[in-house]
Design goal:
It is a single chain. The protein is of the alpha+beta class. The chain folds into 2 domains: 43 residues, no CATH class; 63 residues, HU Protein, Chain A (Irregular). Helix content is 45%, strand content 30%. The protein contains 4 helices and 5 strands. It has a 3-stranded antiparallel β-sheet. The chain has a two-stranded antiparallel ribbon with strand order 3-4.
Amino acid sequence: MASNLTKREIVLDIYEKTGWQQKHIQETVQMALDIIQDALAKGRNVELRNFGVFEVQVRKARVGRNPNRPEKDVIIPTRAVVKFKAGKILKSRIKKLDLDALRQSAD
């Protein structure tokens, strides 16, 4: 399976491309993530052109089932969730993925 990209890897990639101090890069990346997180926590959508949009959506309350006790209904309350919609450039790059290789790495 393809490994996840970590914040540390982002910092190292920027460091290799720029030679800037890793401490400053790490602080800048963290500040950007904090700003995005704060905006979403306030109910604002975050639009990053050509990358995508993080949208805050409200999910309605609903009745669910516990698979271990299907005879008993569980009320799932109304809640806010974050949804990501890929932008135009990201969508076109993802379309070029080798799906067979991706499936094999997931197994």
